[in-house]
Amino acid sequence: MTGTRDALEQLRSTLADVLGFDDAAGWSDDELLTNMGALECLGRLVDAHRAAFAGEVAERSRLELGAERLSSRKGCRSAAELIERVTQASAFEARRRIALGTATRARAGFTGEPIAAQFPLVASALAAGDLGADAASTIIRELDRTRPVADPVALATAEQALVAEATGRGDGAPVCATADELRVQAQAWSTFLDQDGREPDDERAMRHRGFRLGRARAGLIPVSGDLMPEVAAKLTRLFDAHLSPRSGTGFMTDDERASLAETGEQRTSDQQRHDVLAAVIDTAARSGEHPTIGGAAPTVLVSVRASDLAAGRGRAHADGVDIPISLRAARHMICTGGTQTVVFDADGRIIELGAQDRCFTPHQRRAITLRDGACVIPGCSVPASWCEIHHVIPDVDGGPTHPDNGVLLCWFHHRSIDTSGWGIQMVRGVPHIRPPSWLDPGGGWRPATKSPTRLADRRERRERPREGVA
Questions:
Q1: Which secondary-structure segment (H or E) carries 125?
Q2: Could you give the number of structural domains in the chain?
């Protein structure tokens, strides 16, 4: 074992001597591409052995081995965790290596007879460095799902054809197929191999449905998964209803339509769908129709230092996510959900626990909803039930939790009210809106409502002078 480790260390040292990290900047275009290809060939060999090592770790960590499992003996819950600890790779990468190593690993039967790898051609091309780990994983993933129903001869033919496409050795493959090109071809083979399937499509869909939150990157949490068709249809119609140019609610008055013919919408369709989903989540959480946590509605706990909040610098932290959130997001959540002061001494002991600041009550929300009708920003079609209540004068600045200081805003306009340019002020308990200068230069304050009853009152007041003239 020491000899192998020393040899690998020598290879690493040699590569470091051959390549400087910034050498590529001094190469010509052809040198750059040629050397990149040569380095990739080396990388494919390394990836093949990484997968082989991971497959062996998984084999020695089988559940049936009980306490003798390698992962258990090393204090890890699974083979994937053990690989993570040794390699510092992500959990996703560890699982990918295990899947690839297991599918390309020759095994021994119960009586000791050799058993070929599940995908012997992929294993051979991978070991030779002709096939990359991503391409190999694509072939295995797409073909393996058909294994229970596919004809073995047809499955072997598909594997041979895909490996040939990936290595550029097929009749119709003058160049090596990229991993993405190979994925399309592998999916076509998968469909061919499982034209009927042993289980109805609905049962298969039910088995594979799912929704996942990924690891944070670039300050965002990626999502992925597969929705049942009827769920996707409902979600699509929900998006359509709120992303159409006008939802037909009739919220805007004639004066508003004339002065704000363009709403100034600058969000992309993806961003708008995100904001619709945010409103749906908030609405569901406060509906009272979902399970409670600790006797209360599902509530996200956000922690932030008072000094950071006062200075406007620093970060806040929300339970359930690995990355910090901005102070802007924290203020948004404070405005919506209230705050509770917790004081620690120098050693971290809790020495003071303040009462939780009161949020708008359901009775206040109903009153504000009757007054405002929906999000008070002109042109926004988000209904009242999806809106949050915004403290016009922030609670931290002494603003009361009273209908005279609360207005309905959708998630997006509430989140961006400090930066969007929209102004809101309360005049004798009535919301007044001022558009941003880029949308309406020189625009002044005007009362804002989308309440059908208040709009009817306005129309009635306008008609009375005409009736007197007649």
A1: helix 120-127
A2: 3
Q: Are residues 162 and 40 in the same domain?
A: yes
The span from the CA of 3 to the CA of 107, in Å, is: 25
pLDDT in tens, 415-458: 888 888 889 999 998 999 998 887 777 778 988 888 888 888 77
Cβ–Cβ < 8 Å for 249, 241 = no
Domain membership flag for residue 191: yes
Helix (H), strand (E) at residue 157: helix 152-167
CA distances to 82, 133, 328, 335, 400 from 397, rounded to whole Å, are 51, 57, 16, 11, 9
Confirm if 142 and 158 have CB atoms less than 8 A apart.
Answer: no
Return the SS3 of 204: helix
- Residue 292 covered by a domain: no
Q: Does some domain include residue 39?
A: yes
H/E segment holding residue 224: strand 223-226
| Residue the block writes with tokens 């990836």 | 47
Residues of the chain above pLDDT 70, percent: 81
Q: What is the pLDDT of residues 168-179, one digit of tens each?
A: 776 655 677 888
What domain range is 126 assigned to? 12-196
305 and 253 in a common domain? no
364 and 348 in a common domain: no
